[in-house]
Amino acid sequence: MNKFELEQNKAFKLANDLKQGGRARAGVAGAAKTDRREQRKLDQAKGLVPFACKLDEKLVKQLKARAEAREDGMTEALAELLVKAGLER
Question: What angle do CA 43, 33, 22 make, to 5 degrees?
């Protein structure tokens, strides 16, 4: 690797850290960070399955605001809303 590639990798890492920092700040302050692999194992143990969908921007802003008001985050906020809508857990 030449010097340019090393600097480019540093820039990519920094950009990725900045992207992830927004989500980390939304969590509980002082909570220990878990890496993705460990988080995936924890989610699987809870029976959680990744589920992606496209939503209106206004709705997403409302969901994010609701999740930030809760300590347990977006997953639990969405689960609560789905249960209230009549879907079983």
Answer: 95
- The domains of the chain are located at 50-89
Q: What angle do CA 64, 34, 40 make, to 5 degrees?
A: 80
pLDDT tens for 52-73 read 899 999 999 999 999 988 888 8
Taking the model in full, what pTM does it have? 0.49
Q: Are 73 and 27 in contact (CB under 8 A)?
A: yes
Q: In this structure, are residues 15 and 57 in contact, taking their beta carbons and an 8 Å threshold?
A: no
